[in-house]
Automatic annotation (TrEMBL):
Keywords: Hydrolase, Lipid metabolism, Transferase
UniProt source species: Salarias fasciatus
PROSITE patterns referenced in this protein's UniProt entry, alphabetically: LRAT
GO annotation terms (biological process): N-acylphosphatidylethanolamine metabolic process
Ranges where the LRAT domain occurs: 15-128
Keyword set includes Lipid metabolism: yes
The keyword Hydrolase is annotated on this UniProt entry: yes
Top-level taxon of origin: Eukaryota
Entry protein name: LRAT domain-containing protein
One cellular component (GO) term of this entry: cytoplasm
Length: 164
């Protein structure tokens, strides 16, 4: 199956919300079909995004289609009514400059939504974390494990193709 497009074509600087079952993953659209987002660092433990000792995540730039996979997604500039977005060139430049960086990760303070909103607004906020009825610790740990396995499996397949 292909991902369902829930909105029009994204513009550089837009926030992309990807529905992943019990949680939303967030990315920043930087143009030419690419997004920058905070992902599980392969090589760390599968719990690396939510429990010590490996509270690290990797900033990755990849095609929107690859980041989304078969999940539904939409443009959702979630805090535009609360904050004025920063200039698009600043959002895109700062997002791309962070590619490849390993950053601290915390479920309540530094998740992928915090990362994306900080780039767009200069304010790191997460609506998911504020809604405790929807996002639970156990659900997030399972989502992180699933994401980590999918990302590392994808990396392994790319490595296998490159060696054959």
């Amino acid at each position: 199956t292909t991902p369902t497009l829930l909105s029009k074509n994204p513009e550089p600087g837009d926030l992309i919300e990807i529905s992943r079952g019990g949680y939303q993953h967030w990315a920043v659209y930087v143009g030419d079909g690419y997004v920058v987002h905070l992902t599980a660092a392969c090589g760390s433990s599968p719990n690396g995004l939510s429990s010590p000792p490996n509270k690290k995540a990797l900033v990755k730039k990849e095609k929107l289609q690859d980041a989304v996979g078969t999940d539904e997604w939409k443009v959702n500039n979630i805090l535009d009514k609360k904050y004025r977005p920063r200039p698009v060139d600043v959002i895109v430049r700062e997002a791309c400059a962070r590619e490849g960086q390993e950053l601290p990760y915390g479920i309540a303070t530094r998740n992928c939504e915090h990362f994306a909103t900080e780039l767009r607004y200069g304010k790191a906020e997460s609506q998911q974390v504020g809604n405790h009825e929807t996002v639970t610790y156990v659900g997030h740990r399972l989502a992180c494990l699933s994401c980590w396995l999918a990302r590392c499996q994808g990396t392994k397949k790319k490595e296998d193709k490159a060696t054959h």
